[in-house]
Amino acid sequence: MSKVYKKNLPPKIIAILFSLLLWVYVMSAINPRITSDISNISIQLINLDEIRQQGLVIVGEPAYNVRVRLNGRRDEVQRISREQIVAKVDLKGYRVGTNNIPVEVFVDGQVDVDFTPKFITVELEEVVRRQKEVDIIIEGNPSEGYVVGQLEFKPTLVWVEGPESVVNQVNKVIGRLELENETENVVQSLALKAVTSRGVEVQNVNVQTQFADVVLTIDQLKKIEIVPKVTFNAAPGYIIKNTYLEPESIFVKGQGNLLANLVSVNTETRVINNVTENMQVAVPLELPDGITVFDTDMVKANVIVDRIVEKRYDYSKEEIVINNIQSGLVVDANSLPDSIEVKLVAGESTIQSIDGGGLRVILDVAGLQVGNHNVRPVVNVQNNLEKEIKEIVINPQSINIRITSKGTD
Prior knowledge:
Blueprint: H1 2-6, H2 9-30, E1 33-46, H3 48-53, E2 56-58, E3 65-73, H4 74-79, E4 85-90, E5 97-102, E6 104-107, E7 112-116, E8 119-141, E9 146-154, E10 157-163, H5 164-167, E11 172-180, E12 186-191, E13 193-195, E14 206-207, E15 211-227, E16 230-234, E17 238-246, E18 249-254, H6 256-259, E19 264-266, E20 270-275, E21 279-283, E22 292-293, E23 299-316, E24 321-323, E25 329-331, E26 339-347, H7 348-354, E27 359-364, E28 371-375, E29 378-381, E30 389-395, E31 399-405
Parallel strand pairs: 1-4, 8-11, 15-19, 16-20, 24-27
Antiparallel strand pairs: 1-3, 2-8, 3-7, 4-6, 5-8, 8-10, 9-15, 10-14, 11-13, 12-15, 15-18, 17-23, 18-22, 21-23, 23-26, 25-31, 26-30, 27-29, 28-31
């Protein structure tokens, strides 16, 4: 047998070498080694439930990916799909803070595997749970002639849960109620979301009560008069010139059935004595239940006060005005007194207004014929100041006049 094997040995060796070279050539030309890069392979987080049970959570919602490079024969590389590449990190045993965790990549195939990154950074934080106030934000407006009334909602406090640094950003929890020309009360369930102090929504927190039940009354507007029940009494030596309210009417709001028969409202009853100067007093209104003021915070009662003064005026006979004398008759000037004194008692500002010539002394002789007559002089006060004068005294109180025909001495 050995002779058989040894027979023609050199040609045999050459044939084997030639076959090997041919195989290498065929493999290189037909099935060469290639490299393939596959990006964005998602990294699986192992033992995520375990760290949650420890009260930890990954900060944010990071997307962990790895880039994998495969090197091998073309048929082996092309046989591998994305789904056959598994990338993992194991979170077991890691604690609060920044953790660099090694990445493991598994590929089912006869290929060389490389990948990047080799580590990922995972930020772990404690999960906290805190109560936050609920606020309902009203946007839009009801129909014309209607206004927003009382707002009621529940819950008013909710629990917010999440990473401590994220929960710390939450200022409150809000729901938004949108209005558009409503005339009836609104009942809705509103979705709640956590926001910062600037109103920006906070992501990655769990608002454990997701909805708020809201009831908003839509009130009707009505304008009504105010009836003053405030009495000002002047101190001795002073006079009340005027009193008035600011404003004299107001808009109130309430449900339509409450406003139907409401035409006026009283101020609170008050008596203010010994007033010596102008003053303004805020007075509450006696509003029926269910009715509130819409356009003003407070009604103010005003009083104008004047110091009482006395002044005398002398009028000569030439300044006396004769009214209603019959045609052809005259009053004998010699029968008139040389002067008539008028004493006024009134507020100081009223006297100042009269000083400019606001008085006239009048003798009314309507219907009187020729002869002697006893006539009471009257004082006419111009500019409608009579109501501001406390007392008028004329001296003399009556005058004995003589009426003659014209041309008779």
